[in-house]
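Give me C-alpha coordinates for this 103-residue protein.
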Amino acid sequence: MTFVFVLTGIAILGVVAFVASGSGDGLEPPRPDRPGPWLPSERPVSGQDLRQVRFGVAFRGYRMAEVDRLLDRLAEEISLRDELIDELEAQRGNVPREPRADG
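Here you go.
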Protein backbone atom coordinates (compact mmCIF):
# COMPACT_ATOMS: atom_id res chain seq x y z
CA MET A 1 0.00 0.00 0.00
CA THR A 2 2.79 2.41 0.87
CA PHE A 3 4.36 1.60 -2.47
CA VAL A 4 1.20 2.84 -4.30
CA PHE A 5 1.24 6.13 -2.34
CA VAL A 6 4.91 6.68 -3.15
CA LEU A 7 4.33 6.02 -6.86
CA THR A 8 1.28 8.34 -6.85
CA GLY A 9 3.33 11.07 -5.15
CA ILE A 10 6.15 10.69 -7.68
CA ALA A 11 3.63 10.85 -10.55
CA ILE A 12 2.06 14.03 -9.14
CA LEU A 13 5.49 15.62 -8.69
CA GLY A 14 6.36 14.65 -12.25
CA VAL A 15 3.24 16.32 -13.63
CA VAL A 16 3.90 19.47 -11.57
CA ALA A 17 7.50 19.57 -12.79
CA PHE A 18 6.34 19.07 -16.39
CA VAL A 19 3.88 21.98 -16.20
CA ALA A 20 6.32 24.21 -14.28
CA SER A 21 9.03 23.64 -16.87
CA GLY A 22 7.02 25.58 -19.45
CA SER A 23 5.51 22.68 -21.30
CA GLY A 24 2.00 23.98 -20.65
CA ASP A 25 0.34 27.03 -22.23
CA GLY A 26 2.44 29.39 -20.14
CA LEU A 27 1.79 32.99 -19.23
CA GLU A 28 1.38 35.94 -21.53
CA PRO A 29 4.49 38.11 -21.99
CA PRO A 30 4.91 40.61 -19.15
CA ARG A 31 4.03 44.27 -19.71
CA PRO A 32 6.70 46.68 -18.57
CA ASP A 33 5.63 48.49 -15.41
CA ARG A 34 8.14 51.29 -15.70
CA PRO A 35 7.27 54.43 -17.63
CA GLY A 36 9.28 54.83 -20.78
CA PRO A 37 9.85 57.89 -22.90
CA TRP A 38 6.13 58.56 -22.97
CA LEU A 39 5.82 62.24 -23.85
CA PRO A 40 7.43 63.73 -26.95
CA SER A 41 9.92 66.52 -26.44
CA GLU A 42 10.15 67.53 -30.11
CA ARG A 43 6.46 68.43 -30.61
CA PRO A 44 3.35 69.36 -28.63
CA VAL A 45 1.65 66.60 -26.66
CA SER A 46 -1.35 65.10 -28.45
CA GLY A 47 -4.38 63.30 -27.10
CA GLN A 48 -3.01 60.02 -28.45
CA ASP A 49 0.23 60.59 -26.52
CA LEU A 50 -1.78 60.80 -23.29
CA ARG A 51 -3.79 57.69 -24.16
CA GLN A 52 -0.55 55.70 -24.37
CA VAL A 53 0.95 56.91 -21.07
CA ARG A 54 1.58 54.23 -18.46
CA PHE A 55 2.86 54.91 -14.96
CA GLY A 56 5.08 52.62 -12.94
CA VAL A 57 3.56 51.24 -9.77
CA ALA A 58 5.61 51.81 -6.63
CA PHE A 59 5.39 50.12 -3.23
CA ARG A 60 2.43 52.24 -2.12
CA GLY A 61 1.06 52.41 -5.66
CA TYR A 62 -1.68 54.68 -6.94
CA ARG A 63 -5.34 54.38 -7.82
CA MET A 64 -5.06 53.28 -11.42
CA ALA A 65 -8.70 53.95 -12.27
CA GLU A 66 -8.42 57.58 -11.12
CA VAL A 67 -5.23 58.19 -13.10
CA ASP A 68 -6.70 56.48 -16.18
CA ARG A 69 -9.87 58.61 -15.89
CA LEU A 70 -7.78 61.79 -15.65
CA LEU A 71 -5.62 60.82 -18.63
CA ASP A 72 -8.71 59.95 -20.71
CA ARG A 73 -10.25 63.35 -19.90
CA LEU A 74 -7.03 65.23 -20.69
CA ALA A 75 -6.57 63.30 -23.93
CA GLU A 76 -10.11 64.18 -25.04
CA GLU A 77 -9.70 67.86 -24.12
CA ILE A 78 -6.39 68.10 -25.97
CA SER A 79 -7.92 66.44 -29.03
CA LEU A 80 -10.86 68.87 -28.99
CA ARG A 81 -8.48 71.81 -28.51
CA ASP A 82 -6.37 70.71 -31.47
CA GLU A 83 -9.46 70.32 -33.68
CA LEU A 84 -10.62 73.82 -32.71
CA ILE A 85 -7.19 75.29 -33.46
CA ASP A 86 -7.15 73.60 -36.88
CA GLU A 87 -10.67 74.88 -37.62
CA LEU A 88 -9.80 78.45 -36.59
CA GLU A 89 -6.59 78.41 -38.62
CA ALA A 90 -8.53 77.16 -41.66
CA GLN A 91 -11.02 80.02 -41.23
CA ARG A 92 -8.14 82.54 -41.20
CA GLY A 93 -6.73 80.99 -44.35
CA ASN A 94 -3.54 79.81 -42.71
CA VAL A 95 -1.86 76.64 -43.82
CA PRO A 96 -2.97 73.89 -41.44
CA ARG A 97 -0.46 72.33 -39.13
CA GLU A 98 0.96 68.95 -40.03
CA PRO A 99 -1.35 66.06 -39.03
CA ARG A 100 -1.19 64.78 -35.48
CA ALA A 101 -0.63 61.24 -34.33
CA ASP A 102 -4.15 61.00 -32.85
CA GLY A 103 -5.87 61.80 -36.12
